[in-house]
Design brief:
Strand content: over 45%
Number of strands: 11
Structural class: mainly beta
CATH architecture: Roll
CATH class: Mainly Beta
Largest sheet: 9 strands, antiparallel
Helix content: under 10%
Oligomer: single chain
Order of helices and strands: EEEEEEHEEEEE
CATH topology: Pnp Oxidase, Chain A
Number of helices: 1
Length: about 160
């Protein structure tokens, strides 16, 4: 059995300005990875059943981040500047590419991995210079586009599933 390790699910954030070609920064210097699915559970208490029945009608994933304050790291530099500028509204919406590198395709010659491409709202939280971290959440919104991704030289390429 193979155990999945922390480096096998790779979050990228598109830091390109609107209309420009995607420019993905890998969030790699984070000290946490906790993808919370936030299932919306609805209970129905049918008269024929002794106990209520639960169903899930949607998910609202969030990915909290504690990014190390390392100048020169593409992701840190971007989020540090964002923290300084304090953007609002649409300026906080970025595409997130989440590459599930633990799920490799059948071809080892040019491996591709399951991936999600989803818009997310960046919610800036804290700059903690004592612990040397910038904290923010990526709140997924809209629709998740499922597909595959390859990563070459740290640069991802996403292909949606038809």
């Amino acid at each position: 059995m193979e155990r999945l390790t922390k480096n096998q699910t790779i979050p990228f954030v598109n830091i390109a300005k609107g209309g420009e070609e995607a420019d993905y920064a890998r969030i790699g210097k984070s000290t946490i990875f906790d993808l919370v699915l936030n299932a919306n559970v609805v209970s129905a208490n049918y008269i024929e059943d002794e106990m209520p029945t639960d169903s899930v009608n949607f998910y609202k994933p969030t990915l909290a981040q504690e990014l190390a304050t390392i100048k020169g790291d593409k992701a840190f530099d971007y989020f540090y500047e964002m923290l300084y500028e304090l953007p609002l509204g649409e300026e906080l919406v970025h595409d997130v590419l989440l590459v599930f590198a633990g799920n490799k395709s059948a071809s080892d010659a040019a491996p591709s991995f399951n991936a999600w491409l989803v818009p997310a709202t960046v919610v800036l939280k804290n700059l903690n210079t004592v612990d040397e971290k910038i904290l923010f959440d990526l709140n997924f919104s809209g629709n998740i586009t499922k597909g595959t991704a390859t990563v070459s030289g740290g640069v991802p390429t996403f292909t949606p599933v038809a």
